[in-house]
Amino acid sequence: MTEMTPVPQAATDATPVKTPALPDAQTVTAVKHWTDRLFSFRVTRPKTLRFRSGEFVMIGLLGDNGKPLLRAYSIASPAWDDELEFYSIKVQDGPLTSKLQHIQPGDEIILRPKPVGTLVHDALIPGKRIWFFATGTGFAPFASLLREPATYENYDEVVVTHTCRDVAELEYGRQLIENLRQDEMMMELLGAENLNKIRYYPTTTREQSPKMGRITNLLKDGTVFADLGIPPINAETDRAMVCGSLGFNIDLKEVLEGFGLREGANSDPKEYVVEKAFVG
Ligand SMILES: Cc1cc2nc3c(=O)[nH]c(=O)nc-3n(C[C@H](O)[C@H](O)[C@H](O)COP(=O)(O)OP(=O)(O)OC[C@H]3O[C@@H](n4cnc5c(N)ncnc54)[C@H](O)[C@@H]3O)c2cc1C
Ligand SMILES: NC(=O)c1ccc[n+]([C@@H]2O[C@H](COP(=O)([O-])OP(=O)(O)OC[C@H]3O[C@@H](n4cnc5c(N)ncnc54)[C@H](OP(=O)(O)O)[C@@H]3O)[C@@H](O)[C@H]2O)c1
Hints:
Blueprint: E1 25-33, E2 38-44, E3 56-62, E4 68-74, E5 83-89, H1 97-100, E6 108-116, E7 129-135, H2 140-145, H3 149-154, E8 157-164, H4 171-182, H5 184-190, H6 192-195, E9 198-204, H7 215-220, H8 223-228, E10 238-244, H9 246-258, E11 272-276
The structure holds flavin-adenine dinucleotide and NADP nicotinamide-adenine-dinucleotide phosphate (NAP).
NADP nicotinamide-adenine-dinucleotide phosphate (NAP) is lined by residues 37, 135-136, 163-166, 205-206, 214, 216, 245, 247-248, 251.
């Protein structure tokens, strides 16, 4: 499991507002800053909250007007975890994250316990190989699904692609996968043989790294399949979940449909599902 250490709070007048009077308040237990644009944190879990790995909830803080300022966030922890983990962007002038980035252990956030989303196993028909395609913070729902036993029960192979501009932006995902393979509790829960099913394929687009390029292009020209030594995506065997910017989701949908996959939903499971990592 990703280890997080408390960090000193930066000097700011945008201190998170305590929300003890709110019924949906949860307490921050850990915070880790990955880059100047990315951080992750853990909070207490409401006892009554049930969710499916891959879903998202609304979280936030009290705004300056005293009203809750909420945004959609994928739950990055698996459904069995005692706490909830989130992986977040820091938008410097963003109404929520300009404040949220300063939370510290002991602070409270608001969490509406109504999970929803399409990046769930129930929205896919059975297959042999599952692909998780993420850009940026779109890795968050897959951080949950990679720690979900059903992922390994349902599939023989799990291919995780993560594309970011810079190498540092890959680190949360890279460490999470590395720790899965080293953490005894995770090995016991998920099975060492199951963790060998993971094929991790990180790429960068604006900083030199071992694999450069947009995943859409690397799929279209066959590079991904050649690099991993696997056959191309096939509608009979392959299932996919996609989480990135709107432009990424649109372009990747076209690629997947080119391989013959059809978009599914909770009410109508098919071969692939998509969720936006952010709006805008
Ligand atoms: C279904 C869903 C799930 C989401 N899950 C997450 C998550 O797990 N982690 C997360 O950090 N955000 C997630 N978001 C985005 C999140 O809801 C907020 O937009 C984000 O926290 C910024 O809030 P803000 O109020 O500071 O700025 P906003 O006013 O919400 O956004 C300002 C601008 O910042 C950019 N932006 C916003 N979010 C991101 C992002 N994640 N990556 C890159 N650019 C961004 C966009 O250009 C946006 O127009 C999700 C959004 C949706 C719709
Ligand atoms: N990341 C940063 O360092 C940074 C810094 C300041 C501000 N911002 C702003 O923050 C917002 C989000 O940035 P982000 O980097 O988190 O997300 P992003 O712009 O969606 O890019 C994330 C990764 O996805 C790739 N990508 C984007 N669109 C794609 C598509 N249609 N098909 C395939 N791959 C695609 C990008 O490749 P490309 O590089 O080829 O686009 C990049 O590697 C943007 O508005 C950006 O201007 C980002």
